[in-house]
Amino acid sequence: MHRVLETLQSKFPSTMVSVREDQMRGDLSVQVSAEGLSEVAKFLHDDPALAFDHITDICSADYPDDLERFEVIYHFLSLPTGTRIRVKARVPEENPSIASVSHIWKGANFLEREVFDLMGIRFEGHPDLRRILLPEDFDEGYPLRKDFPAEGKGWRSNFDFLPKLDEPVSAWNEADIPEDQRHVFMAGDSPESSKRTTELLLNMGPQHPATHGVLRVVLELDGERVVKATPDLGYLHRGVEKLAEGLTYMQILPHTDRLDYVCAMTNNYAYVRAVEKLIGMTVPERAEYIRTIVAEMQRILGHLFWLGTQALDIGAMTVFFWTFREREVLLDLFEKLCGARLTYNYYRIGGVDSDFTPEIIEGLKGFLKSFPQHIHEYDVLLQRNRIWVARTKGVAVISGEDAINFGLTGPVLRGSGVAYDVRKLEPYGAYDKVDWEVPIGKDGDTYDRYWIRIEEMHQSARIIQQCLDQLPDGPVIADNPQVVPPPKPQVMRDMESLIHHFILFTHGFKPPKGETYCATEVPKGELGFFLISDGGPRPYRMKIRSPSFVHMGAFDHMARGYLIADIVTIFGSYDIVMGECDR
Amino acid sequence: MFETSLRLALTLTQIGVVMGIVLLTVAILTLLERKVLAWMQDRMGPMEVGPYGILQPVADGLKLFFKEDIIPAGANKLLFSLAPILSLVPALIGFAVIPFGPNISVEFFGVEFKPFVISDINIGILYILAFASIGAYGVILAGWSSNSKYSLLGGLRAAAQLISYELNVALSIVGVLLLAGTLSMVKIVEAQGGNWFFGIIPNWFAFALPFPQFVAFVVFYLASVAETNRLPFDLPEAESELVAGFFTEYSGMRFAFFFLAEYANMILVSCVAAVLFFGGWQAPWPFLQFHGSLEHLAWLSGIFWFTIKVYFFLFMFFWIRATLPRLRYDQLMRFGWKVLLPIALGNVVVTSIMAYIFPNS
């Protein structure tokens, strides 16, 4: 048995309901009683030998037929030892409540609110347990429960809570807003002063030029200084997780494009990896290389988009157009690869859709040749620009400990000097076969996060170059007719292939009963898919651990004390995409 | 009686022509800015309206003209309507004292008038500064009267920024006034004729002895960029932070007024820079006054050089916009008070000393 599980079992013999080490998938999971969760969590976090300092995710599952209906599932990661553990606790339907861990991991705050919002489980001791993705006055129930219908409830125009276009707008006055609706946005601990002050609540978004979509942040301001920043998410919530429960594993794939639509393929990659891990299948080597190349192309694409919008937010508009010039080259390559420029569909469970054509390889090589020169152009405009440096250095500083505690990942975490990259910690694809480095920041400020993303583009170019040089021959999709649809020509000629095809597209494949969490390093951070299979063709529960959502949890912490202009910089330095944040 | 009416008619004509040229320049500038930015950013800019997009300003103007005029609920209607006018009028009124060409007098039915300056008053530059200060009220009142928090923040920023940078504008031109010994715009230009250093360097105040005012020009230009709310000092309207700042709530022609005011201000500032520091209508070297032996056409060359200079400074506005990110509020204040102001003051001191030691150079 694994060391961690042994320690836990000897330390908490009565709390542990069961411990399990999934040899095939390499997952550790323990089932604890709800009462004991708090102390187990504290032990996991505090014990120097275990040191589960990073909270990855909190989610929940609903088993209506069980005695204790709801299961709350925690994923922790120990950065020093590189171990992941899944802690599960059951709570009954009558009193679905469990102790909050938000005082141990600050990042649990938002994650617990999401579980409360979608599953209706209360977290005792949570500082601010409100709905987060759904509207605050949503009283239809908890959508991820199995008894909540997955179908729609009529036409949008018939919902009485949506304003009608022909109704006159009722006049309202700001003073009419009750005090209790305001107080959630106030820091509340403003120092006593002899001057009479009135707070200024500023609504940024959901329609605002710099909030990268439909993010709303309520700022409590003291002059131009931010006293408290309260993000209000969910304007783009589409219930992908609920939708997935009604779709077969293959049908979910196009839905994942729409998560992080700036670099859609990385979501596909994260998803197909999770499914492959669940069913335990291997992918041909050439496919692994192609996947790695495409994932790194997407990383460059995402970082270019980020750089352009970040620069535009700070006022340097030329960089925006220059990055789009380079994006255009890559987008053309993607168009040749899969026919689409935004919501690509190229990754398949078991491999990729089609092989690289010589044209794509040539185009990619041409791009790599000119790309370092283009990055240098951005550097000339930004890195050597004193205004840019003054706007980013020392802005939105987050220390390494805080960043880990908030569960941040990706460039935001690495900017604070923590060398955590899923590609190094749990290498997948061809990342362990090529030579590359993880850039690490020092100060945890916006400038470091900027520098890291620039450096990552260099590294991505390096990875692509090496992968292209090493690219082995072979098939690009696994030969596994139970899971992978057979090629079309065979389907038209061969009876057996036709049957497989028919079964796959009418029923879908059935993974074994089980559950797994699979993390992938996407440009924004760690994108994780947690899948529970009950042996059927559809996932029993799919949870998406989206980096943007977790990063928004640290927003208030990072924004306090800075100016309005810096708020925009902080959004930018997270590289948030609301499609992924709200899911 | 006849003489007075004729003088009035002539002046009105002059005003009409100058206004027409300024507004036409604004229209050209809106297109030019988009084109210049586009060229710097590897793209085409407007291409749809007319050949090569040259009719884009007409389309924009028509669109703004026909847009719904919205006054937000809770706005102070009087000030909300007054603010755009308060912004635009001072921007246009400054052109009254700008000499666009040589200081020549023409006799027209017995009435003598100067065709290239509407009014050569002896406090020309003070007059421009005074009206520029009134323009600040337009911005501040627009921000305050809109009943919107973004506008209010923009208006507050504008108040602080315009007042701080006005000081730098005023101080940076003191050196020129010391050297020229006059406040009249026409006389300032006339004082910049000729060349020195074997006829190589023009006697413009930016390069002239006894103390070249080039540093003062840089201060003046930077402060003017801030005065006109252009990048990197466009904090009152910072798009990514305050949506559109002080004119967030404006639409239609009221919005267009602010837009016109901004561009008219840019032109005015460029004109003032050309007049004060770069010799106005004076050609850099005598051989570049290309009228040849046609002395009565010397004014053409003057207007040509003036236009070239003004457009160069306007181009600089676009160039700076394409290159620099926006400053933050505290950095803007620090830059104005701790960098520009000491330089401007130092320039005044050094220029006074030099002008005292070498009174006649």
Structure explained in plain terms:
The complex is a heterodimer of chains A (583) and B (361). By secondary structure, chain A is α+β, with helices and mostly antiparallel strands. Chain A folds into two domains: 3-8 and 16-124, 2-Layer Sandwich (Beta Polymerase, domain 2); 240-582, Orthogonal Bundle (Cytochrome-c3 Hydrogenase, chain B), CATH 1.10.645. Chain A is 40% helix and 16% strand. In chain A, strands 1-2-5-4-3 form a five-stranded mixed beta sheet. Chain A has a three-stranded antiparallel beta sheet with strand order 8-9-10. A three-stranded antiparallel beta sheet of chain A has the order 13-14-15. In chain A, strand 13 and strand 14 (525-533) form a beta hairpin. In chain A, helix 8 (285-314) packs antiparallel against helix 20 and helix 9 runs antiparallel to helix 10. Chain A starts with a helix and ends with a helix. With 361 residues, chain B is mainly alpha-helical. The mean pLDDT of chain B is 84. Chain B has helices spanning 2-40, 56-66, 77-93, 124-145, 149-172, 174-180, 185-190, 214-227, 239-242, 252-277, 298-323, 329-357, and strands at residues 106-108, 111-113, 195-196, 201-202. Chain B has a two-stranded antiparallel sheet with strand order 1-2. A two-stranded antiparallel ribbon of chain B has the order 3-4. The termini of chain B are far apart. Chain B is built from twelve helices and four strands. The A-B interface holds A 171, 200, 202-203, 208-210, 224, 311-318, 320-322, 325, 381-382, 385, 387-388, 390-391, 563-568 and B 37, 40-43, 73, 149-150, 153, 157, 231-232, 234-235, 238-243, 321-331.
